[in-house]
UniProtKB/TrEMBL annotation:
This is Isochorismatase. Pfam families: Isochorismatase. One of its GO terms (molecular function) is hydrolase activity. The keyword Ribosomal protein does not apply. Transmembrane segments: none annotated. Residues 9-180 form the Isochorismatase-like domain. InterPro entries: Isochorismatase-like_dom (IPR000868), Isochorismatase-like_hydrls (IPR050272), Isochorismatase-like_sf (IPR036380). Keywords: Hydrolase. The keyword Hydrolase applies.
Amino acid sequence: MEPLDTNATLLIIDMQQGMNHTKLGRRNNPDAELQMQSLLGAWRQSQRPVIHVRHISRSPDSVFWPGQPGCEFQPALQPLGHEHVVEKNVPDAFTATGLERWLHVRSIRQLVIVGVITNNSVEATARSGGNLGFDVIVVADACYTFDQTDLAGRVWPAEDVHALSLSNLAMDYARVIETAEILTAGCKDLCALSASAT
């Protein structure tokens, strides 16, 4: 893997307390949050930009309806005061949020995407980012999803939904890699941080 840009931006999608609600069902990748925390720590130490995306639902029965605890960021992934927060109402973080302009003003062209849900907001945002000309990297083990019922009523395991979503992205929209590759081969400063943490 080539070194990351010095201003490569970590985009953390929808890591809100509502993602832990039982009504969302069974998920895959139980260590995803640990991978996200590892990347977030490395980004902060290397002083690269971090963006936190928060979903604000338009549906009153959603775990992300405004004013509910589900809207709040998970404690381990809380934004710092200087980190940019984007609020969205649809899966795609680029839609009606000003995100594209924010990135262009800062000459940012490389996005490293983590978060949830792999086949929904992560995929939608990565597709838009790729279509808009950004160099998009999706970190496979720092994302997760839930079991999905298709239109015929068949239940697909979260592991399969996750794998197919990432495969779709890898065709045309993004590079799909693992956390370890970012930390050990992405760039010198992140590699040094990874080595000092072990």
